[in-house]
Amino acid sequence: MFPTVRVSFSGIELDARYIVLLDIVPVDNKRYRYAYHRSSWLVAGKADPPSPARLYVHPDAPFSGDQLRKQVVSFEKVKLTNNEMDKQGHIVLNSMHRYQPRIHLVIRRDPSTANAPVTDLESERYRSFVFPETIFTAVTAYQNQLITKLKIDSNPFAKGFRDSSRLTDFER
């Protein structure tokens, strides 16, 4: 996912264990298109049926409360796809639809359950966090070449798209 969602936490119990999860939910029931002449997104109809929601568990979980207090948790390894048949555990989104990432913080006070997987969020003790400024429109291709270049240069999974002939000696 680009740009990357990064969060930090405060006010947590230092002796507890935590699992940090991310999911991405539709914002509305509309499909969008980009109007180049207006440089804006326009409603283009009713949304496609949403894919089943998937929870992405941060790969470094569980965290101690002390770890969470001292570090920024980054979701740079999250992978998004529009392939509804995905079997890799990627988060499936519909292109040209608007989405809201959500962060869920699950607390595990019992050390014997600290490493147990989260299979049903509603059966856990948790808090969810939503940041309205992270709403985005999912796309499969950028029309703006500067945005395409920024994504390729910033995305660790886009190595195959980088043209080594345009790199400086320092970058090589």
Automatic annotation (TrEMBL):
Family matches, as Pfam families: T-box
Protein species of origin: Dinothrombium tinctorium
Single GO MF annotation: DNA-binding transcription factor activity, RNA polymerase II-specific
Domain T-box: 1-163
Predominant cellular place of this UniProt entry's protein: nucleus
Name of the molecule in the record: Putative T-box protein H15-like protein
InterPro entries: p53-like_TF_DNA-bd_sf, T-box_DNA-bd, T-box_sf, TF_T-box
Transcription regulation is among the record's keywords: yes
One GO CC term on file: chromatin
Coiled coil: none
Gene3D superfamilies noted in UniProt: Transcription factor, T-box
Domain of life (superkingdom): Eukaryota
UniProt subcellular location: Nucleus
Any one GO BP annotation for this protein: heart development
SUPFAM superfamilies membership: p53-like transcription factors
Record's keyword terms, sorted: DNA-binding, Nucleus, Transcription, Transcription regulation
